[in-house]
Amino acid sequence: MQPSFEIIFHPVDLSAHGKNPKGLPIYRLVWADSRKTKLLYKGKIHIIPRYPILDPELADSWPLSEDERNKCKKNMRAHWILERWMSPEEFVGMSREKYAEMVIQFPHMEEFPSEGEYDFECWFPSEVDDVLVSRAIELRENRRKNVSSSEKRAEEAAAEELKEKQQDEIFEQKYEQAREESLTK
How many whole angstroms separate alpha carbon 96 and alpha carbon 77? Predict the structure, then answer.
């Protein structure tokens, strides 16, 4: 995990949107260029930008209209990144034990983020205020809850279907049992 003294934070206070187990805000706004990560390349570890900013001049070669190209160029300039805190397991996508097994196979992996880690949610242009950021967080959280709601409905439907199948099987067994008993009389 990158030390916080190396990161440039936006002064907006986002703690109203929740705090992680360490008491830090779940969301934070950081300057893109200040976030770094490790990259293993040709046997050496390199520290590189976590959110690389594209060179606006690259847009000149894209098959876009002049207006679209200018819009892309404007959006490629330095920007703020909204990050959301994730638990260690959520961030790496596996348990600590499985991660330890991966490290044996790939020893240059970063250490397990035992205190969790912040990861990309969305980006903003260089000018941003707390209203815009709060609205973006609300949209993100609503999307997260809606996905969870739909998944929950799907799970409930699957459970209901399984219950119906089990009831049908019980009915068929009782029907067969009653039919066999009536034939033996």
Answer: 37
* Residue boundaries of the structural domains of the chain: 1-127, 129-185
Q: Which helix (H) or strand (E) holds 159?
A: helix 130-184
- Give tens-digit pLDDT for 9-49: 888 889 999 999 999 999 999 988 788 887 777 778 778 77
Q: What would the two tokens of residue 82 be?
A: 């909204």
In the chain, how long is the greatest CA-to-CA distance? Answer: 91
Three-state secondary-structure class, residue 31: strand
pLDDT tens readout for residues 112-144 = 888 999 998 888 876 788 888 888 898 888 887
Residue 52 and residue 165: Cα distance in Å, rounded?
53
- The pLDDT-based confidence of 154 (bands split at 50, 70, 90) is confident
Rounded Cα gap, residues 37 and 44, in angstroms = 13
Tokens of 67: 């207006």
Residue keyed to tokens 């440039």: 8
